């Protein structure tokens, strides 16, 4: 494009190419072994460690007895996972059957009783494992959304003004370490007292869990946003001053994009905390998600209990991991530094 | 022509536990409209401080600055600043970086007109093909071209250049001096440039103002540079007058820049 780019790149290649003709092949070989080594390290090492983990688990499982038999090994847990998966599709098939029958009945009824209305009936089977996962995801995202909507603007204000930061800081420091188990009863009491609309959009248990998630997960976002905004490059602010950008424009076009990598680091941490908090909140609030599943299975006390709970543990772990990757992906899409932090 | 910019008794002090530290004291300078003035001095003598006070980015401790009949009190887009580091916003393309300022100044113009202004100045500085790249994809020289385009695109009353080529290699610096001179030739904006490069000062400026060393730095001497414009570097290098100017400036920096402090000590 410019002269400086052309001048510096063309010459060295022309000089070095005829002198060492065999060098490229050596490079290629080196690169091959290098790539192989990296592949082994990237793929092989986790596979080996996972195999060791499974082996150790199955060995320990055989030898540890609890009051309803032995601890389930990896195979038993896998089996239980398959059962839960099958149950879901069996339940869906039942549901489809039910609605098919219902449609038939409705057609017959309307044919024989013209002018009358057929009652609106919903299928009321128990929520399956996959349904519970979906409920959990909805709850955590609702809570995370509420938390972020509070945390990001509050963080920006804290970062922009030392005074506001000083005013907020005691609350941040005091409320940050509070466990979800302490928030939940307060939230539940408040929700049941204040949330009584005639046609509720949300279940109370859902709302309580989501708000608890919000209360516990907003802190990393708030702190990181404040840090990101406070540590904005002075040069960027000088640009804003020279151009006399208004407060909104400055915040929106300069402060926010500059702090975005920090904000996303905060959001990632927040979503992780939210997901962890959610399970506890659902257990207590009886929100029909994974937490309630674990609690119900524990209360059942059948021989499958431990296997089912372990399925839940793995599910929770894998989803948590997926959520983190999702946030990282989002961060790479929107922040200018491509998610380096 | 009357004085367009006037810096009178400009003073900058910083409070320290041992009393006020005087960086710049009684700095007086008048610049005519369309004049290109270079301010040279040793590193840390306070020349950048003078410029940033003029830009409104640094508070004035004493004296004042008048630009086009008004006393300055704050930063504003009527002064286009080219910073030493290009200060481009990395999340915007080169074009958007320029457009941000254009939108701010020409808010009454239509969207198409504003885009045309930004495109025009980016093309003039030689970035017609790269204007939609983001700063991380640009070389240091290209970034500074954007910085120049951004300052000129504001159509400011005055141009302020704070060692704009200080971070570039020699070849790129020579290239960008030419770019700057070409753009300046079209607009004839009143300009003040801070530099410690004597050749750069002679090549670009109508007048070189030499600053004494700090603390309490001020104007030591001025040297008018009367080469005709548009200037050509090759022709200039063959001119004996060029070397006379160069010698004069270097002598000042080597010997006389300290005069004020030695006088103060004697008194």
Characterization of the model:
The complex is a heterodimer of chains A (341) and B (267). Chain A folds into two domains: 3-63; 129-334, MetI-like (MetI-like fold, Orthogonal Bundle). Chain A is built from eleven helices and two strands, in the order ααββααααααααα. Chain A has helices at residues 3-19, 23-63, 74-112, 129-160, 162-175, 180-194, 204-230, 234-242, 247-285, 290-300, 305-334; strands spanning 65-66, 69-70. Chain A is globular. In chain B, α4 (140-153) packs parallel to α5. Chain B has helices spanning 47-55, 94-105, 111-124, 140-153, 170-187, 198-204, 233-238, 240-256, 259-266, and strands at residues 3-16, 19-32, 36-40, 62-67, 70-71, 79-82, 158-162, 190-195, 207-211, 219-224. Chain B has nine helices and ten strands. Helices cover 39% and strands 25% of the residues of chain B. With 267 residues, chain B is α/β, with parallel strands linked by helices. Mean pLDDT of chain B is 89; it is low at 261-267. The interface between A and B is medium-sized, with 23 and 30 residues.
